[in-house]
Amino acid sequence: MRPAYAHIDLAALRHNYQLAKQFSPNKALAVVKADAYGHGAVQCAQALTDCADGFAVACLEEAIELRSAGIKQPILLLEGFFHADELALCVEHDLWLVIHAHWQIEALTRSPLKQPINCWLKMDSGMHRVGFFLHDFVGAYQRLRQCANVGQVVAMTHLARADDVQSPAASQQCAVFSQAIKQLGVPTSLSNSAAVLAWPQIVSDWTRPGIMLYGSNPLLKPTEVTQQLKPVMSLQSRIIAVRELPEGEAIGYGARFVTQKASRIGVVAMGYADGYPRHAQDGTPMLVEGHRAGLAGRVSMDMLTVDLTDLPQAGVGSAVELWGKHISVDEVAHCADTISYSMLTNIKRVQKNYLNADLKAE
Ligand SMILES: *Cc1c(COP(=O)(O)O)cnc(C)c1O
Questions:
Q1: How far from chain centre, in Å, is Cα 48?
Q2: What is the pLDDT of residues 9-61, one digit of tens each?
Q3: Which pathway does it take part in (predicted)?
Q4: What is 10-213's CATH superfamily?
Q5: How far apart are CA 66 and CA 229, in angstroms?
Q6: Binding site annotation covers 110?
Q7: Does the chain have fewer CB atoms within 10 Å around its N or its C terminus?
Q8: pTM higher than 0.85, yes or no?
Q9: According to the CATH classification, is domain 233-355 in 1.10.10.10?
Q10: Is 278 annotated as a binding residue?
Q11: 359 — pLDDT class (breaks 50, 70, 90)
């Protein structure tokens, strides 16, 4: 079998969730949208069932997958519903909804539902993607409250620049939000991973950590705290061929890399069809036989090439970590001009192998 694997360490996932809880005195929804950022939503949710206060996913389909696997905790749909005909299933599966537009309130009011639905009313406090503007928010809240199909209401907003500890943007958004809901006495939710770690002064009833659960640093710069995160995914493969080449030979598509001296080039069974970023530059690090080595040449669909000139001990069969415990996904993302979120959610074709599945939270 092709030796390309994503090892998923569920004990690391639990550790990271506990870390998020340490920073949020109240409850934390574990965000497992997009198949738990590529890690497998069912396995990740099951690994967190004994400690997570709830889960968040993007849509109904993702939530049903979790319910079908026996997940009992609250599940929030971060984009709410897209059409009124989803509401009956939302009731049947006991899901919570983000409400971000007037038409959703109208649909909720008009639909005959068997049970009230808990709703998270989203404010646009500055990100300008979805949600009610400040001047609309209290009115929307009152309409929701009057709707018989609505159970509990939480007020939420999303921060655009919580990753930048130098910027006042997060506190400004937070101030807008707090001002608008002051009179309502409603539970609140503000913080994503970056805010959980960098803005502990932002206190709300529910946090929504995502990327930090998977061990990636959500901040622009690492801090003492982000260094306590444990990487969950380790993307691994093996060297399947080795070339000895003289100086001046070009490697791979477009001849991007040319040997500067007599070189040994290894071929790794991993490519962009597995989710490894095609835009990774020459020199992007990976771990071969326990030592760092650099990408040499463009990434292909099924293979990539690595400079083994300084690693004579490496050869066909040598283990390669593309990212994981030794090479951080954030470092590779930086070398590929992308972000860990995009790389992790792109993982496909590789075998997923779950570690520490039966270890309960410490
Ligand atoms: C995805 C998402 C999160 C989690 O964000 P991270 O940066 O991964 O922590 C939180 N809140 C909302 C509304 C989201 O869409």
A1: 15
A2: 999 999 999 999 998 889 999 999 999 999 999 999 999 999 999 999 999 99
A3: Amino-acid biosynthesis; D-alanine biosynthesis; D-alanine from L-alanine: step 1/1
A4: Alanine racemase (3.20.20.10)
A5: 25
A6: no
A7: N
A8: yes
A9: no
A10: no
A11: low
Asked if 60 contacts 81 with a C-beta cutoff of 8 angstroms, the reply is yes
The catalytic position among 5, 21, 27, 33 is 33
- Lining residues, ligand 1, CB within 6 Å: 31, 33, 78, 158, 192-194, 208-211, 218
What average pLDDT does the chain have? 96
Q: Any idea where the domains of the chain sit in the sequence?
A: 10-213, 233-355
